[in-house]
Design a protein that fits this description.
Strand content: 15-25%
Oligomer: single chain
Keywords: CBS domain, GMP biosynthesis, Metal-binding, NAD, Oxidoreductase, Potassium, Purine biosynthesis, Purine salvage
Helix content: 25-40%
InterPro entries: Aldolase_TIM, CBS_dom, CBS_dom_sf, IMP_DH, IMP_DH/GMP_Rdtase_CS, IMP_DH_GMPRt
Protein name: IMP dehydrogenase
Family: Belongs to the IMPDH/GMPR family.
Structural class: alpha/beta
EC number: 1.1.1.205
Shape: globular
Number of helices: 16
Bound molecules: 1,4-dihydronicotinamide adenine dinucleotide, xanthosine-5'-monophosphate, potassium ion
């Protein structure tokens, strides 16, 4: 006879936190939200620590290189999607790893012989008002001069004239050599009253541009997640089909961490793939998943997973539970696997972090997942709403929305996953829209402020203290109603989600 688990499968909506004693030294300013990402011996630091306990989902509609750069700058981490050719995913990793804050590749480039009219058009397209004039019109050609909107005016100058007639030629443009540091470059920008400083190699080819306006931008990101060489960190999703080709290419591109992406990680496929990865690339942490119970956690921890991702069927685009009748309420899944993690740590001395993946609808659900013992979370819908996510931004009567689709949807499969263009017999995800939420940094700052405020109310000054000290209560349907405002809401500019 089948085994029936008597305990009801519960979701985050069914829980609330009780306040704990807040001591005077515990404040929003002092609360620490760093958290381990990879397995480590108890009492020793994890080889990879997140500054912000959030990661972005391994999905085409979420984790592009742009989103990965933005999230790493905020202290979190993206796992670039694997549902694309290996070389494209490796190129995306390289784009994040070569992102140099302050040093940008020029995206507005012209030849000296191009007409000013073409330059105006290009500036409108890129939205930038400074252009590099290079011999071949590329971002790495020999630099011949610089031209900005200040150098000409459509009413004063003939737009059919060549760019060379209005550019500032190279001998009058201050420039720097390739080995200049950002600090030195910033000193020159200010000392010499410059807006931009081109960086050249010894043959005079353009390498990067450094803008004065980016100086302030860098000051905005004091908690960037970087490696020992100060490059942003980035993760990548992999699968149990082409991992023997994909993992070497990603490691070659200097990926920081990998994660198997599957709706079902409790499989021999994943154990074999983890063993292979650990044997060939022992220095690259790799996560496994998804599982929803202690049995699944133990299986992956023993197979060598550096972290275990938890959650089946709870994602906002998920229809797995409808289609296959498989899954578990996310709160129950987290609580069960967290208990297994703690038992495993006690027995072996090794701590294998847990990632709660999917189904986080409100910001406070992140807080609940952490309180229940998750070390960090993974989110798709949350990140798909921001400017930096790849989905198109579409106007509707109710305001802007962004596209968001599941990896198990027919749309995702259009990428001909794993090179097998087989017919899909059923979908496990939907293709839809989420409300547009602007810039990632502003949205995440607001979310983090809420998480920290709750931790302060619970008297926890860091995540480990929160995990061990949090007190949660189940809520009845009636108390759930009581939790919401019971008056008609006046329109305000505040954010709620
Ligand atoms: N977290 C969740 O609740 C869900 C997530 N998804 C997402 O949808 C995407 C697709 O997930 P899955 O369909 O589970 O992909 P998957 O690649 O893990 O599994 C697809 C099928 O291939 C089989 N398989 C895996 N490795 C194999 C190998 N080496 N040789 C032969 N067969 C093998 C599996 O048993 C399964 O039948 C993922 O991005 C996943 O995250 C989909 C549904 C639910
Ligand atoms: O049933 C599913 N069908 C899908 O097509 C699908 N695509 C992604 N995922 C999983 O959902 C997570 C993101 O969930 P949220 O949008 O709720 O953050 C992701 O991190 C995945 O675990 C899927 N689940
Ligand atoms: K299974």
């Amino acid at each position: 006879m089948a085994h029936i688990i008597n305990e009801v499968s519960r979701t985050f909506n069914e829980f609330l936190l009780l306040p704990g004693r807040t001591r005077k030294d515990c404040s929003v300013q002092s609360v620490e939200v760093s958290t381990p990402l990879a397995r480590h011996r108890l009492g020793e630091p994890s080889p990879l620590i997140l500054g912000t306990p959030v990661t972005s989902a391994i999905m085409q509609s979420v984790s592009s290189h742009d989103l990965a750069i933005a999230l790493a700058r905020a202290g979190g981490l993206s796992f670039l999607y694997h549902n694309q050719p290996i070389e494209d995913q490796a190129a995306a990793v390289r784009r994040v790893k070569t992102f140099k804050s302050g040093f940008v590749t020029s995206d507005t480039n012209v030849r000296p012989t191009d007409a000013l009219r073409d330059l105006v058009e290009l500036m409108e397209r890129t939205g930038h008002s400074t252009a590099a004039v290079t011999e071949d019109g590329t971002a790495t050609g020999t630099l011949l001069g610089m031209v900005s909107k200040r150098d000409f005016h459509p009413q004063r100058h003939d737009l059919d004239a060549p760019v060379s007639s209005r550019m500032r030629p190279i001998d009058s443009v201050p420039s720097a050599k390739g080995d200049i540091t950002l600090t030195e470059a910033n000193d020159r920008l200010f000392d010499e009253h410059l807006d931009v400083l081109p960086v050249l190699d010894h043959e005079g080819h353009l390498h990067r541009l450094i803008f004065r306006s980016d100086y302030e931008d860098n000051k905005r990101f004091p908690h960037q997640l970087v490696d020992a060489s100060k490059r942003l960190r980035v993760g990548a999703g992999v699968n149990t089909h082409d991992y023997k080709d994909r993992i070497p290419a990603l490691v070659d591109a200097d990926v920081d961490v990998l994660c198997f992406d599957s709706s079902d990680g409790y499989s021999d496929y994943q154990a074999d793939a983890l063993a292979w990865a650990k044997q060939h690339y022992p220095h690259t942490p790799i996560g496994g998943g998804n599982v929803v119970d202690a049995e699944g956690f133990d299986f992956l921890a023993q197979a060598g997973a550096d972290f275990v991702k938890v959650g089946v069927g709870g994602g906002s685009i998920c229809i797995t539970r409808d289609q296959k009748g498989i899954g578990r309420g996310q709160a129950s899944a987290v609580l069960d696997t967290v208990a297994a993690r703690d038992r495993y740590a006690q027995q072996t001395g090794i701590y294998v972090p847990i990632c709660s993946d999917g189904g986080l609808v409100h910001d406070y659900h992140i807080t609940l997942a952490l309180a229940m013992g998750a070390d960090f979370v993974m989110m798709g819908r949350y990140f798909a709403r921001f400017d930096q996510a790849p989905g198109a931004k579409i106007p509707t009567k109710e305001g802007f929305v962004k596209e968001y689709w599941g990896e198990g949807s027919a749309r995702a499969r259009n990428w001909q996953r794993y090179g097998q263009a087989t017919k899909m017999l059923f979908e496990e995800g939907v293709d839809g829209y989420v409300p547009y939420a602007g810039d990632l940094h502003e949205g995440l700052a607001s979310t983090l402020a809420k998480i920290k405020a709750t931790m302060v109310s619970c008297g926890a000054s860091n995540i480990p203290a929160f995990q061990t000290g949090a007190r949660l209560t189940l809520v009845s349907e009636q108390s759930f109603q009581e939790s919401h405002a019971n008056v008609t809401i006046r329109e305000t500019t505040g954010t709620t989600h």
